[in-house]
Amino acid sequence: MALRKCPKCELNYLRGNETICRVCAAEMDKKRRHEPDEDEIIMCTECGERPAVRGKDLCEECLREQKRQADLELHADQVRADEADDPIEEAFPVEDDEDSTD
Ligand SMILES: [Zn+2]
Ligand SMILES: [Zn+2]
Question: What are the C-alpha distances in Å from 74 to residues 34, 69, 70, 71, 77?
Fold first, then answer.
């Protein structure tokens, strides 16, 4: 069984089914991690610290936070709608203000 040399560095021999040596594989891996030019990885536009969820602009954390905010707003909207539904006369009994005057 003939030893094959790494086609990349031509220094190290390949083992088994390797197409490049471990040194080159590690080097490529390091480079890939250093410069993530794959446009699949988009950083979160909100915090910019975590990669965004695929197809979204935000990371999981921020998405969760956004959802929570949306839920809160939705809830607030419902409360506001409920309040608006109430007849104002009931909320402010103006007819009964005689004993409080003066
Ligand atoms: Zn190599
Ligand atoms: Zn984020």
Answer: 42, 8, 6, 5, 5
**Whole-prediction pTM:** 0.40
Burial profile 78-87: b = 16 or more Cβ within 10 angstroms, e = fewer: eeeeeeeeee
Q: How far is the CA of 81 from the centre of ligand 1 (A)?
A: 68
Q: Which ligand gives the minimal distance to the CA of 46?
A: 2
Give the ligand with the smallest distance to the CA of 21: 1
Q: What is the Å distance from ligand 2's center to 92 Cα?
A: 45
Write down the domain spans for the chain: 1-35, 39-83
Read off the pLDDT of residues 17-47 as tens digits, 9 standing for 90 and up.
999 999 999 998 888 776 655 556 789 999 9
Cα separation values, 56 from 8, 20, 53, 67, 101, Å: 37, 35, 5, 13, 60
